[in-house]
Amino acid sequence: MAFRDGPFENIKVPLVWTAAVTVVVAAIGCVLLLISDARAQTSPYQPVRSGVEAVAGPVGGIFAAPVRWFGHASDHVGGYFFAVSENRRLRRELAELQPWRDQAIALKNVNARYETMLGIRPEPPVAMQTARSILDTRGPFSRARLIDAGSAQGVKVGNPVINEHGLVGRIVGVSPGVSRMLRVTDVASQIPVLVDRTDARAILKGDGSSNPRLEFMRGTASVQVGDRILSSGDGGGFPRGVPIGVAARGIDGSWRVKLFSDRGAIDYVRVMLFEDFGQLIGPEQLNAPPLAALGTLPEATPEQASAITDSAARRDAARVQAEQRRADTAAATAAEAARPRPPAPVAPSPVTPAPAAATASPPGGTE
Amino acid sequence: MRRPVAVRVVGPVQWIFIPAGVTLAVTILLATPVELFGLNLPEPVIPMVLAFAWPLIRPSITAPLVLAVLGLLLDILTYGPLGLWGLVLLAIYAVVLASRSFLIGQDTAVLFAWYAACCTVAFLMAYVAVSLIARNPPSILSLIGQVVPTLLLFPFANWMIERFEDGDVRFR
């Protein structure tokens, strides 16, 4: 029996009210989602995000392909027509850069020797994975990109992403074929940085604009317009020294950073397969209670036990000897102080005797 | 002999599902990483058109559900907090639904003023929500950079209202 043939045949609910009830129910669902989603790797909806991104990635790649071809074609035409001027410019740049290259080689040599002398362990070389940007989000509420390299290529959450100019962002989500990269301009991005000139530390905080803010800057003269900003490596999330941009004053008077990565199109990027401290150790080991490993240690062998007993006995004997020496020294000092002093010799000449303070031994004895 | 009047029935496929699909496709298209002369493609919130036009065309149970799904997809595509745009779009749908009797038959200028007010409320909601979640207020200039292209989408909303409002004589 159909619904309309039953006892509810004559009941007519206004369509506006049913729509309103649907809106309220759907809105409650959205609020619950908003509360429960943390937009992080620990979010319970991360598999859903990864699934949609795995589908949207290739679709975006199809749209991005003609754009890339057009870009290559325009580069080819531009290169053909501007070859002479480009050649002159490159020659000039080469002449300017050759002294810098010599200095860099010399400094690298000196730096390597210093590191050897001081026993500094330099950072290991970081493996790279090249990827192509396929979807871009540029709004005020999120600045992120999808790139076409995922966990199958070794990309992990937390890996920094750079282009040929500087830092672009970091990986916040991976699936086998695509990864989600959060740009340094996103409102959720906070990166520890340093000012190259003064080594002052700050936090680079995105706000959805093209130029992220420099916050928690200590001191008044620690940064100037034009200072280079690098990643500080504090916290272990990023390697130290990755170029980010130059400091500039925003129209609101705050310190901001003009990003190096915006000097060209962010079409091809490189993912730094950088393992931070947290990835190397593992959270369960970091959170283990102190001395928890003692409960799992094997029993000591007889040789180890005798060595431990022997060393403890020797330590006790040494302590007894040291106490005995201290007691003997204290007794000798007391006996010396109790002995009567000989009378002072009488001077043959009628010279005024020296004051007592000049002849008395200094407090605390002499050595 | 009188000829029978042909009743043109416009179903949900025509005024809900096809526009929703087009909206999703254009959203993905505009997310293409294109940079010409240092400028990127605009990134308006395209489902705002549907949130404004659908309740004026006719009240429906399907439309808010599809709107919520579109909002969730937008959140995933833009890596926003899940539920943010769904909630915002449903709020706009509710506001327009409540003011439907006033807006039906109004002049285009009045509709645009109402659309602009709805966009302002929507972006204000999103701004406050993101500020609370990220504990970091987004840039106002960047916000204006998304509000303006969204306002420029009003002709599409107006076209949809004119195209589908009287499409089904049963809802006159």
Give a written overview of the molecule:
The complex is a heterodimer of chains A (367) and B (172). Chain A is an alpha+beta fold. Helices cover 39% and strands 18% of the residues of chain A. Chain A contains seven helices and twelve strands. The radius of gyration of chain A is 37 Å and the shape is extended. The model of chain A is unreliable at 346-367 (pLDDT under 50). By secondary structure, chain B is mainly α. Chain B has one domain (14-25, 43-165). In chain B, 67% of the residues lie in helices and 2% in strands. Chain B has eight helices and two strands, in the order H-E-E-H-H-H-H-H-H-H. Chain B has helices at residues 12-30, 47-57, 62-78, 84-98, 100-103, 108-134, 140-151, 154-164; strands at residues 35-36, 39-40. In chain B, strands 1-2 form a two-stranded antiparallel sheet. Classes of the chains: A alpha+beta (367), B mainly alpha (172). Chains A and B meet through helix 1, helix 2 and strand 1 of A and helix 3, helix 4, helix 6 and helix 7 of B.
Layout of strands and helices, then pairs:
The complex is a heterodimer of chains A (367) and B (172).
Chain A: H1 15-36, H2 46-81, H3 83-118, E1 128-138, E2 143-147, E3 160-162, E4 167-174, E5 179-183, E6 190-195, E7 201-205, E8 213-215, E9 228-231, E10 243-249, E11 255-259, E12 268-272, H4 277-281, H5 283-286, H6 302-338, H7 356-359
Antiparallel strand pairs in A: 1-2, 1-12, 2-5, 3-4, 3-12, 4-5, 6-7, 6-9, 7-8, 9-10, 10-11
Chain B: H1 12-30, E1 35-36, E2 39-40, H2 47-57, H3 62-78, H4 84-98, H5 100-103, H6 108-134, H7 140-151, H8 154-164
Antiparallel strand pairs in B: 1-2
Helix pairs in contact in B: 1-3, 2-3, 2-4, 2-8, 3-4, 4-6, 6-7
Give the SSE string of chain B. HEEHHHHHHH
Q: Main sheet of chain A: which strands, in order across? A: 1-2-5-4-3-12
Helix content of chain A: 25-40%
Poorly predicted runs of chain A are 346-367
Oligomeric form:
heterodimer
